[in-house]
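[recover] target loaded
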């Protein structure tokens, strides 16, 4: 069998009916829509109408909120970093930042920054610069003898926490 010999079984695909093309077609004149009324016309939106009753989409309560300017982080786990170091995609001797991770192929673009999470095990001593990190990730990097450089906290947040 070759690619140019592949074909559907006879009758597997049915051609679409061309409606409204004369009485000889069997679907001429009203084109199977019946006669008169709203449903015979174009642009009908009757499915959401419940005869004056409050429609379902308005009876269900609204929920949730998505902030319009929310930051999107690129998430990287410690295990992923260790694998990239083992595969010689990242150099543990040099500082690792978002650009190095993009070059290593961990992700395509850094979005609003990289957030380091503690899943997996880190054996290499690394110096890493990220926009955010979980407490477990910070602990694991420092346990391995490395260090994490995080951006400074805003004044209001530093005073509160």
């Amino acid at each position: 069998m070759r690619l140019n010999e592949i074909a559907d079984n006879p009758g597997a695909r049915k051609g679409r009916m061309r409606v409204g093309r004369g009485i000889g077609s069997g679907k001429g004149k009203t084109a199977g829509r019946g006669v008169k009324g709203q449903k015979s016309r174009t642009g009908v939106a009757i499915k959401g109408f419940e005869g004056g009753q409050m429609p379902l989409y308005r009876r269900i309560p609204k929920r949730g909120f998505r902030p319009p300017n929310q930051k999107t982080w690129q998430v990287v786990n410690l295990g992923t970093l260790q694998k990239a170091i083992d595969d010689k995609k990242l150099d543990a001797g040099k500082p690792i930042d978002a650009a190095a991770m993009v070059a290593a192929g961990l992700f395509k673009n850094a979005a609003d920054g990289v957030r380091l999470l503690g899943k997996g095990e880190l054996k290499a001593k690394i110096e890493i610069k990220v926009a955010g990190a979980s407490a477990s990730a910070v602990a694991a990097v420092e346990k391995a003898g490395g260090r994490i450089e995080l951006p400074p906290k805003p004044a209001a947040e530093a005073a509160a926490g």
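[recover] notes: The longest strand covers residues 74-77.
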